[in-house]
Write a structure and sequence with these properties.
about 475 residues, MFS_dom, single chain
Length: about 475
């Protein structure tokens, strides 16, 4: 039943090159066998700063489309909202592989720093967009320039000893998840401040004229703080000059599972353990992104359309509580779960548990008051925790399938493919939600039930691909 973590390789002769940042990290890991809390804190902060802009617009997206006067009818708002939500991922799809290759060539740190800088600039510009095409363009460029996802995953592996790899990637997944839920809470609480807080903001103030600038500006200021902190971010990529290839292979990533001999000279696209884990990862990210958009649109839409009639502030509070629950899960529960079940079995179990959980959402419209609150908050927290477990497990399998010299490119391929599916997610979810609202009174699967039924179909497909022959486990990753 259990899976064993990748076995620690036999000790190699320690050979370090002066001036090589990767060797400095390896030396530090050999001396300090504990958890690298400082480096993981940097990983968490930079990941959150990168993730916050992605979903911060979800709580106010409905109102933004209304204010931009692009939708002809109320039922068409979901369609335009989906295109706007997808534009970021289209940009990331176009550029992720490029940033992964760059991270393998010049280092992880320069790509991370540039990505955070792009968040500061283009997230602020998004807050002052007054036309639909301007909003689409700004999100597209932000997605293309924010190439941090591929290098930060490689970085989180490279700063940790083998026994802490799961923790390193779970920090990325959890920080990403927190960013994706705290972002909407910021957007929900700070968007349209002149309407929400008329005693503090007037209609004639800059935040009255640009009702979505305040949440974007707050996120950008946080990104500025993170950008400054990157000065102390150590590089992890090995950079050797005048040294033989054999020695470089021995030096590279001394403490990680040995994939060099297995995949030396092999194209990444022919590495089936890598590609199969990427396929599973993409299916689950498609589901996760579609779920995030549908949850926001569903909770904020009117009850006559099968929604909950929440305000943007209430949606933000819901997602903030889900983020807090996710943090508790990551700190106290995830590591024992991973140690007991391993990557693959934890993914299977989480995927299976997600199916009945998603079925329950449309029936919550029959609840009210504290019963609705308890059910909805519990479901949101549980879904966030299960999603993090799945994405962390598939990410670990991807990184174990390649050596360090290919890790940035491998994560770039993963981010590219995942971004394509994430672009489909909001667009497809928005179109599905818009169509579903028009058939709310259908006899067979009315609108709100149809939305979550389609979500569950994707979840079931993801569950199936976690089994052989669809999923190939790296040869050095033993299953009991």
């Amino acid at each position: 039943m259990d899976e064993e973590a990748p076995p620690t390789p036999p000790p190699a002769t320690s050979l370090y090159v002066d001036g090589c940042p990767g060797c400095a990290i390896e030396r530090k890991k050999e001396i300090n066998k504990g958890i690298p809390y400082k480096e993981l804190l940097f990983v968490a902060a930079t990941t959150i700063a990168s993730a916050l802009p992605i979903s911060s617009l979800f709580p106010f997206l409905y109102y933004m489309i209304e204010d931009l006067h692009v939708a002809k009818t109320e039922q068409d708002i979901g369609l335009y909202a989906g295109f706007l939500g997808a534009s970021y991922f289209v940009g990331r799809f176009l550029a992720s592989l490029f940033w992964g290759v760059v991270a393998d060539r010049i280092g992880r740190k320069p790509v991370i720093v540039f990505s955070i800088f792009s968040v500061v600039i283009f997230n602020t510009l998004f807050g002052v967009c007054m036309k639909y095409w301007m909003a689409i363009t700004t999100r597209l460029v932000l997605g293309a320039l924010n190439g941090m996802l591929a290098p930060i995953k490689a970085y989180s592996i490279e700063i940790c000893r083998p026994e802490h790899h799961a923790l390193g990637l779970s920090v990325v997944s959890t920080a990403w998840g927190i960013g994706l839920v705290v972002g909407p809470s910021i957007g929900g609480c700070l968007a349209r401040p002149a309407q929400q807080y008329p005693n503090m903001f007037s209609d004639k103030s800059i935040f009255g004229r640009f009702p979505y600038l305040l949440p974007c500006l707050c996120i950008s200021l946080f990104a500025v703080v993170v950008l400054v902190s990157c000065i102390w971010l150590p590089e992890t990529l090995h950079k050797h000059k005048n040294i033989g290839n054999n020695e470089i292979e021995m030096l590279s990533d001394l403490g990680t599972p040995r994939t060099e001999d297995i995949h030396r000279g092999k194209s990444l696209y022919k590495n089936w353990p890598l590609m199969s884990s990427i396929i599973a990862y993409c299916i689950f990210t498609l589901h996760d992104t579609a779920y995030s958009e549908i949850l926001s649109l569903w909770t904020i839409s009117d009850r006559k359309y099968g929604g909950l009639s929440f305000s943007s502030k209430e949606v933000g509070q819901l997602l903030a509580v889900a983020g807090a629950g996710l943090l508790v899960y990551q700190l106290f529960i995830y590591r024992p779960v991973h140690k007991f079940l391993g990557c693959v079995n934890s993914c299977r179990a989480s995927s299976a548990l997600s199916i009945p959980l998603i079925v329950s959402f449309p029936f919550m419209t029959h609840l009210s008051g504290y019963r609705l609150g308890l059910a909805l908050y519990f479901a949101a927290i549980a879904k966030a925790a299960l999603g993090m477990t799945i994405l962390t497990g598939t990410s670990l399998l991807q990184n174990y399938a390649v050596p360090q010299s290919q890790r940035g490119a491998a994560n770039g391929i993963s981010a590219t493919a995942m971004s394509f599916f994430k672009a489909i997610g909001p667009a497809g979810a928005g179109a599905l939600f818009s169509w579903a609202q028009k058939r709310q009174h259908a006899a067979f699967f009315p609108g709100d039930q149809m939305v979550f039924f389609v979500l569950n179909i994707v979840q079931c497909i993801g569950f199936v691909v976690t089994f052989k022959p669809f999923l190939a486990v790296p040869e050095h990753y033993d299953l009991k």
